[in-house]
Structure formats: structure tokens, C-alpha cells
Specification:
With 228 residues, this protein is α/β, with parallel strands linked by helices. It folds into two domains: 1-16 and 52-110, Rossmann fold (3-Layer(aba) Sandwich), CATH 3.40.50.150; 126-217, Rossmann fold (3-Layer(aba) Sandwich). It has helices at residues 3-12, 36-45, 62-69, 81-94, 129-138, 174-178, and strands spanning 52-56, 73-78, 98-102, 114-120, 140-151, 183-195, 204-214.
């Protein structure tokens, strides 16, 4: 089964597959006790003027809509047609403006200049992690923030998720190395966390690589500069 098919079925089977609590769009970090990444991002953007945000693998659009309600210009990229339609509907219902792109993350093209990129739950479905991370880093403005969460290899992929190709990363793998020169607001390895949110699966565990990092304002000494 392809990832698109899997999430078309999952998103079509229930009104809310993710973020079922009422205050899902709240800008108060205290309203998101189960998501440390969301807390860190909200604390970071609290003192910033609204900018441009990209939500890759947007799902049903909760992160994208939350940022749009804060006044940010938001692009949401989602491979599932059902998910993309739900982002549009949920954004309309919330009074938020989100530009939805129905495409694969690797096929998404943009002039860039993003001040925030959210990549939550996408990279473990991407084999070419280095390629995708390099592209979104290029699309990010100096000082811009990336919020990344992906499965790690510390816990085997549960049987219920093995119906689609998955590519968890080593804790000291592509993700960690890609951000080695970025300033970390958060970087930790969550191990064997029980997942009880999926109504369509038995309780199971995942391990994650979780990171919130800021792009350096200047290239590091070892970075390759473009030819002139």
C-alpha cells in the first residue's frame, strides 16, 4: 500500500484522526502538554512578528491552521487528497487562511524565505531524507526555525504501520547530522512512547527524534558557498 492510500483511508474513516482535543489551535503552550515540540515552537514565535511558515506532511492541518490564526502566511503540503480537503475545510471553519498544496513533499517547489518549517511525522515515510532536508533548509530564511519529529530505529516499526514503506532514522543518523550546525532549542530522543491516539490500531510504541532548531544567520565555516 502507498502512503497516500493509507492516509486517504485513515483520514476518511474519522472526523479527526489527529489533535482531537478542543483547544488544538491554542497559541498557549500550556494547552499542549503532550507535545513538547509544539510548546517550544509557540514560545519561540511568541516574540516574533508573523512571517512565512511551511507545514510539510500537514495531515489535517492543525499546525498550519494554528500558525495562520497567529497571522502567519502558511503553506501546507499534504500528499493525501482526503487530508488536503480536510485542511481546506478545517481552515475555513476556523477562519484561517492556509494555502494547501496537494503533492509529495519532495515534489513541492517554492521560492522559499520561510521563517518556520514544521515537519512533524513525515520523514519516517521518506527514504531520501538528506535530499528533502537539504531542500527545506535552502528554503529557510537565516534565523528561521525548523520543528522536526520522526520515528527512530530504537523501537521496531509496529505491525500496524508496516502496511506502507517506512524509513525510521538512527538517533545519530541523517536528521541529527543535517542539523549539526544549527542552534538547538530542543533536541532529544524519545524512546518507547506508547501511542494510544490511533483509533484504528491497537496500543503500540514508537521512539522519536525530536528537534527544534534555528538556521544560522551566517553559513558555518565548513559550508559551501555558491559560485559567483
Amino acid at each position: 500500500m502507498e502512503v497516500r492510500e493509507f492516509f486517504d483511508a485513515a483520514y476518511g474513516a474519522t472526523e479527526r484522526y489527529w489533535w482531537r482535543k478542543q483547544r488544538r489551535y491554542s497559541a498557549d503552550p500550556a494547552d499542549h502538554p503532550a507535545s513538547l515540540i509544539t510548546q517550544v515552537v509557540l514560545r519561540h514565535v511568541r516574540g516574533l512578528p508573523p512571517g512565512r511558515a511551511l507545514d510539510l506532511g500537514s495531515g489535517e492541518g492543525t499546525d498550519a491552521i494554528r500558525m495562520a490564526l497567529l497571522g502567519w502566511e502558511v503553506d501546507a503540503v499534504e500528499i493525501s487528497d482526503v487530508g488536503a480537503k480536510k485542511i481546506e475545510r478545517f481552515a475555513y471553519e476556523a477562519g484561517a487562511r492556509v494555502t494547501v498544496h496537494r503533492t509529495d513533499a519532495l515534489a513541492f517547489d517554492s521560492a522559499g524565505g520561510y521563517d518556520l518549517v514544521v515537519c512533524n511525522g513525515l520523514l519516517h515515510y521518506v527514504a531520501a531524507k538528506e535530499q528533502l532536508i537539504a531542500r527545506i533548509q535552502e528554503m529557510t530564511a537565516p534565523g528561521g526555525c525548523h520543528a522536526v519529529s520522526s520515528w527512530s530505529t530504537f523501537t521496531p516499526v509496529p505491525p500496524g504501520h508496516q502496511v506502507v514503506p517506512t524509513f525510521p532514522d538512527d538517533e545519530d543518523g541523517a536528521i541529527t547530522h543535517a542539523y549539526r550546525d544549527w542552534d538547538k532549542l530542543l533536541h532529544y530522543y524519545e524512546r518507547n512512547r506508547l501511542e494510544v491516539a490511533h483509533q484504528d490500531m491497537e496500543t503500540h510504541a514508537h521512539s522519536h527524534i525530536k528537534m527544534v532548531a534555528l538556521k544560522p544567520a551566517q553559513p558555518s565555516r565548513g559550508a559551501r558557498r555558491p559560485a559567483t
